[in-house]
Amino acid sequence: MAGELLLEVENLAVSFRSRGAVADAVSDVSFRLHQGETLAMVGESGSGKSVTSLALMRLLPDAPQCQVRGSVKLRDKTGSGMLDVLALPEPQMQAVRGNNIAMVFQEPMTSLNPVKTIGAQITETIRLHRPMLARAAEDEAVRLLDLVGIPAPRQRLTAYPHQLSGGMRQRAMIAMALSCEPSVLIADEPTTALDVTIQAQILDLLKRLQEQTGMAVIFITHNLGVVAEIADRVMVMYSGRVVEQADVVPLFQQPLMPYTRGLLRSVPRLDLAGRRAGALYAIPGNVPDPRRPPPGCAFHPRCDSFADGRCNVEAPRLDSTADGRQVRCLRWPEFVA
Amino acid sequence: MSSSIFDSSPGDSNPGGDFAAREAAIALPPRNTALRRFCRHRLAMAGAIIIAILVLGSYLGPYLIPYDDTFIDIMQRFAPPFSGAHILGTDELGRDMLARLMMGGRISLAVGFTAMVISMGIGILVGAIAGYYGGIVGAALMRFVDAVLCFPSIFLLLALAALIEPGVASITLLIAATAWMDVARIVEGQIRGLRERDFAVAAEALGASDLRIVFRELVPNAVAPIVVAATLNVAKAILLESYVSYLGYGIQPPTPSWGNMLNNAQIYLTSAPWLAILPGLFITLAVTSFNFLGDGLRDALDPRMENH
Amino acid sequence: MAPYLIRRFGQAVLLLLVVSMIGFAILHLAPGGPMAQYAIGSNMSQEDLDRIAQQLGLDRPLPVQYAEWLWRMLGGDWGTSFRDGQPVLHVIGSHLGATLQLMLTATLLAIFLGCWIGILGAIRRYSVFDYLATIGAMVALSIPTFWFGLVTIFVFSVELGWLPAGNRETVGDGSLLDMLHHLIAPAMVLALVETAIWSRFMRSSMLDVVNQDYIRTARAKGLPRFKVLTRHALRNALLPMITVAGLQMPTLLGGALVTETVFTWPGMGRLFLDSISYRDYPVVMGILMFSAAMVLIGNLLADMLYAVADPRIRLG
Ligand SMILES: Nc1ncnc2c1ncn2[C@@H]1O[C@H](COP(=O)(O)OP(=O)(O)O)[C@@H](O)[C@H]1O
Ligand code: SF4
Ligand SMILES: [Mg+2]
């Protein structure tokens, strides 16, 4: 890992409480993120990816309804120390949000305020963290819109979100997120709602911007095909837990956890498209309800390597392998052999 | 960005009747939590109990008290409440207030209930025909509904009441005539939605006649919103009765109703305020109870019912 | 925006046509129909009446009569009052100001209070305040307006002596302060139901907006909660309230009628009641049609305002 450590998450756990029931949406998530690095967070819908990222931003609901435990340390943009994000008072946290760590959301259609112009929404962010005159902020917004590849950026300042296409809106969202040069950018399924061709463009844009700024990116997706494009390292999540973590190449070459294997098999592959169009593999069953997780390995009801009497009894820990990978599976040593 | 209550609004020119807005405000979609549901449930229960007490009191009460509502006792005029033999005092003719409130309650509740039944009948019929047939017939009927809703119901009610000989039956009919439109809309919407479902198609295939399909298959499915609308409609009818009677064009004295008891109470506001306060209190109590009951029923019958 | 407004306008015209048909039907239901004026003051013989009926064209087919009646209405000829022989529109016009003043004051009061209560209820959802506001709104919606008026007079005029018990001004005074003094109680009474309606809709609208993605985006920028509320949530939450405002006309008019009666306020509602008691059918019919037109115009205005306020329609 090239750059300095920017983000350190340890034993992050999030639980929601509603009507007496407690849902452990995220538990025991730990990872580190360095400058210039892209970490992909992968998993099916409901596996806790968004909750994890919202916890990093401290954007989850307040205490009685939602509880966040563990520790999140973020490098201070100005000083050299690490900020204890979860302990930061709200006013200080507001100075961190959008400034040190920014976020791009899944739905470009609904994530921008429909009654405010693109320009107003971007300059608002700029002026929130970088005191400057309105005119200067406008020029800066034009520069940013240009940077994210929006044509005729100055005219776009007065456009309303609905006047832009989905792809353009997502670019505007990215421009807004980048406006204060955050050291960490979280992109929560930024391309899921877009057409395939637009998806590719946005991915290219993110890659280019990352090279230019050196920021670290947490890229959330449920599509491993996208991961191969963009990530350095992959963190696979299942039922709120990290189940495998590895660099992108080894993970694709030899997935250790049966869930990762299943995900890989469900990636549409261009080289097979001609022969087996439409016959895409899907992991049978569904993500468990976090209020009633299955005993033992959370994946056992759907696992093709399930060992009765073991997998449904003993909860696997997150093991570290000799080559620096992490995997949460009782049988992984057998798969290496 | 629109919630269910607004879904129909921006794209829909339909104005509401003057009580429609009240009702729509009552009928906001529920946002459920355990506490809220419990609270609604309790308020609805309280509403039901109060309604039961008011009905029983109005119908049985007069047999239990020693005064007749029509007995004039000039020596006992303006006896204040809680001070003598007349528990709730007497009016300007020395008539017992409690007895009058009970007899007035009979009329007001009966008019409210009957008007509800009639207006539901009209509303369901019009809505069902419009919803089932759709097309030009449906559009014409619903535009008629819209047009009637353009007249504030009190204006319409008074204008019509001025044209007829006022009596309990005719006033009840007129109230029903100005209160059926919202029901028609609800039923039309429900049935238009249900019409597309396959069981209606199946019934059609079996050769059932049009009307049989509407009333045997479709209407029962719209029963939850209809029951809720019916409950709220009683509240509306009681209010309307009180308005016209207060203004002098509703139930005519000496027959007491909660509304007409207020008719000339304003004159005695300084000397005998209970004449004004008591009947209004009962109207408010009854209307609030029906509204809370309707609200609770909506929650109980279908927690996901958000189409109003 | 133009096609949208043209369509709304077309719908309004169509509705007005149906409204006028209903009005015409009621007119012919009146005892003596359009002839009532002559039938009531009857020192005329049957022959005279027949002759007048013929002159008025009442022997012609109903559709022809309707078309002619509508044409006269559109031309501003709404007939003359039986009571004082004045043109109906003139009579209505001379009472309209008082009604509009009352309705406008009550509406402003209700919007201010209702929005405030609704917003507070939404951001403190399920708090004690929220429960009280919800229950309070339900009760307010159940109180007969005229009775609330009587109670208000009893408390503020009879008991406390703070406010006048009725009328628009003290005879012989007529200063602005005096008029405002008279306005307080009726405006408050008329505003009660409206406040309840506004608070309910505002709460619901605010709750809706608060859960939108763009609110999360605004928070993710680092905006403090309060600014998220004022800069991002409020404008969006207020938008649908324009439509709500447009739908208030019937409630307001109905409420104004009884409020004016209780407070002897010289507006259109009282005129309507007086006209009914004098059997002044042209004025009764006129006000009925006029109020329906106001309802329609209220809706149309709200649609137009909405189109201006919402960029998605304005530019869409
Ligand atoms: N505000 C919330 N209240 C209760 N449960 C929530 C809330 N947000 C998310 N969850 C639950 O947390 C789990 C993880 O959700 P999420 O992180 O959104 O999944 P994804 O991986 O698709 O982004 C889900 O089971 C979801 O139901
Ligand atoms: S622990 Fe067992 S059930 Fe879980 S992934 Fe490994 S093999 Fe499958
Ligand atoms: Mg997600």
UniProtKB/TrEMBL annotation, chain A:
Instruction: Tell me where it resides.
Output: Cell inner membrane
Instruction: Read off the PROSITE patterns from this record.
Output: ABC_TRANSPORTER_1 (PS00211), ABC_TRANSPORTER_2 (PS50893)
Q: Name one Pfam family in it.
A: oligo_HPY
Q: Which keywords does the record carry?
A: ATP-binding, Cell membrane, Membrane, Nucleotide-binding, Transport
What are the BP-aspect GO terms?
Answer: peptide transport; transmembrane transport
Which InterPro entries does the protein's record reference? AAA+_ATPase (IPR003593), ABC_Ni/Peptide_Import (IPR050388), ABC_transporter-like_ATP-bd (IPR003439), ABC_transporter-like_CS (IPR017871), Oligopep_ABC_C (IPR013563), P-loop_NTPase (IPR027417)
Sorted alphabetically, which SUPFAM superfamilies does this protein's record hold? P-loop containing nucleoside triphosphate hydrolases
Record membrane topology: Peripheral membrane protein
GO MF terms on file? Answer: ATP binding; ATP hydrolysis activity
Could you tell me which residue ranges the ABC transporter domain spans? 7-264
Q: Which GO terms describe its cellular component?
A: plasma membrane
Family, according to the entry, reads as follows: Belongs to the ABC transporter superfamily.
Family matches, as NCBIfam families:
oligo_HPY
Protein name, as recorded: Peptide ABC transporter ATP-binding protein
- The scientific name of the source species is Teichococcus deserti
From TrEMBL, chain C:
Q: Which UniProt keywords apply?
A: Cell membrane, Membrane, Transmembrane, Transmembrane helix, Transport
- The source organism is Teichococcus deserti
Q: What is this protein called?
A: Diguanylate cyclase
Where it sits in the cell: the answer is: Cell membrane
Q: Which PROSITE patterns match?
A: ABC_TM1
- Give GO BP annotations, semicolon-separated: transmembrane transport
Annotated membrane topology is: Multi-pass membrane protein
Superkingdom, according to UniProt? Bacteria
- Pfam families per UniProt: BPD_transp_1, BPD_transp_1_N
The UniProt record lists the ABC transmembrane type-1 domain at 96-306
Listed transmembrane segments = 12-30, 102-123, 135-159, 179-198, 237-263, 283-309
InterPro entries assigned: BPD_transp_1_N, MetI-like, MetI-like_sf
Family under the similarity heading: Belongs to the binding-protein-dependent transport system permease family.
Q: Which CDD domains match?
A: TM_PBP2 (cd06261)
One cellular component GO annotation, for this chain's record?
Answer: plasma membrane
